[in-house]
Amino acid sequence: MIDHEVQFKRFLQKQGLKLTPSRARILEAAFTMHEHFDAEKLHDLIKADNVSLATVYRTLPLLLEAGLISRTVRIGGRDRFEHILGHPRHAHWLCENCQAVIETDLSALQSAITKEAKALKFDIQQISLNITGLCWKCKDSANDSQ
Amino acid sequence: MIDHEVQFKRFLQKQGLKLTPSRARILEAAFTMHEHFDAEKLHDLIKADNVSLATVYRTLPLLLEAGLISRTVRIGGRDRFEHILGHPRHAHWLCENCQAVIETDLSALQSAITKEAKALKFDIQQISLNITGLCWKCKDSANDSQ
DNA sequence: GAGTTTGTTGCAAATGATTCTCAAATGAAA
DNA sequence: TTTCATTTGAGAATCATTTGCAACAAACTC
Lengths: 146, 146
Ligand SMILES: [Mn+2]
Ligand SMILES: [Mn+2]
Ligand SMILES: [Zn+2]
Ligand SMILES: [Zn+2]
Prior knowledge:
Distance between the termini of chain A: 57 Å
Oligomer: homodimer
Strand content of chain A: 25-35%
Shape of chain A: flat
Bound molecules: manganese (II) ion, zinc ion
């Protein structure tokens, strides 16, 4: 069994839940995908295996709680996610114009955040640093059209 | 005319739009409110003046673009906002359990972010640092119930 | 000023992501 | 095998947000 599957099973058992075929398939798909994904995109990948979209929506919160995926950016009214295990934390820069998503390292900020968390006695589950604006391409074309 | 009204008017004119009574009323309400608000909460405040919820929804993106408000945390499927002018940037810590929102200073991180933006040639509109987890109250009660 | 263009608004209807209902299926345990 | 809680697919329901539209209004044009 793969690393993330072990972790998910352990999490589920702790809650009295089972690692069912559907849940295993959803987990696998989430880790197959190496880009951001939303519920529907993930479902597209596995609907051939008779896994319903409802179950995808039911499983996503479990994966979040288990710390296996994180919510990244909300685009077009849809929540997007990415898998975490083995990926360092990063910030998301979202271009309002072309909707490009750029990722940068977060480790520089992490220590400052952890320190603050200690002071607040806050138990961190997810850190999300999102910066919106215009990417260099769109900033330039904005200048051109003026 | 108040500071934020001048700024909004200037922004609108630049886009060939007008500072109408409805828009002015919405802006005013956004700056009257000294907590986070969602579209409906803002509308409650001004519906007596015959401003429709649709117009609130139409105006919110304008205020965002004008840099007068920012999107903060999404709770219960609703987007929340806060006014910006005169308020220093801050991070939002959201308790998953009691949904409390704690705010902390962001200025320590700001310089690191600005520096990164320069490197990326990214034109920043909004910075949003959201941290989810358990506040100290809920962390404690989780221990109790075990 | 009358007519024209362009942006605005309230209202009601539409949209669409997410959640819920429910009856059938599954599965661990006894 | 019987039991009993959990899970699931399918479809219906929910509900924040968006949109179409007809009436308005201010700004121009002549
Ligand atoms: Mn990412
Ligand atoms: Mn705030
Ligand atoms: Zn761009
Ligand atoms: Zn709490």
